[in-house]
């Protein structure tokens, strides 16, 4: 799932390419009977409402909150997009596929130009915004778990998808004291799960939590209240370092994530532990091996020697 660095990369791309353009049309085939009467474009009635709210409006800004993309419009509405497991947003000139192409490839929309947008990971287009320059902002989402809604901009922070979120770890105002305070909301929690809890800290998921704990020398199953202050300080620094590194490398494309040009990030070439099971620990002087354990239905990767269980 895209985490803070991937969502930041996408938002930066949206800011660069589409701010100032208007939305002239929107198309989707996300519909699912499981979402009837829900606040979600997978419900047909909601999608009609969504369309009315956004067509004709101009995109004035974009920002990230936790793993959500917020696209602000000039009519006091904001589009919220959560890419979930496999979603990613791309930008470029697209066209509808012909009935014959659709039969053969199942693809609904096709990029007009050759290049990264034609990467096989980018073929699963389920949402298309047509923009006033005749280019498109599209979402590819093979598993179709993505969430898209429209909210009154003024009511954003009280909305149920946003109001519970913990602080943003890369804000300069987020200091070590704040970090300790939020962690201790879950004193008995396992540190990896607590780091991934969006109500504690925003934006960290499976990949970055493994890499953060590796750098902090802390075992993923450690109980929060037992971790020494020295290691908490290390963890606080590694959160800032690892997430910033993720942004610098344009995100992580272990899974489906691509940037708005359809290109892979490169953070996955720099993993120390995530999906490195069986390899020697890369930490200088450490004789350990990278292990994988199951934690709450997901994998946790760590060095069996220098990451201490508290
Ligand atoms: Zn090690």
From TrEMBL:
Which terms under GO biological process does the entry name?
base-excision repair
Q: What is this protein called?
A: DNA-formamidopyrimidine glycosylase
Q: Which SMART domains match?
A: Fapy_DNA_glyco, H2TH
Source species of the chain:
Candidatus Zambryskibacteria bacterium CG10_big_fil_rev_8_21_14_0_10_42_12
- Keyword Cell inner membrane assigned to the entry: answer is no
Query: What InterPro entries does the annotation carry?
Result: FPG_cat, FPG_Glyclase, FPG_N, H2TH_FPG, Ribosomal_uS13-like_H2TH, Znf_DNA_glyclase/AP_lyase
For whether the record's keyword set contains DNA damage, the answer is yes
Q: Which SUPFAM superfamilies does the protein's record reference?
A: Glucocorticoid receptor-like (DNA-binding domain), N-terminal domain of MutM-like DNA repair proteins, S13-like H2TH domain
Q: In Gene Ontology terms, what is one molecular function of this protein?
A: class I DNA-(apurinic or apyrimidinic site) endonuclease activity
Which CDD domains is this protein grouped with? EcFpg-like_N
Task: List each copy of the FPG-type domain by range.
Answer: 272-308
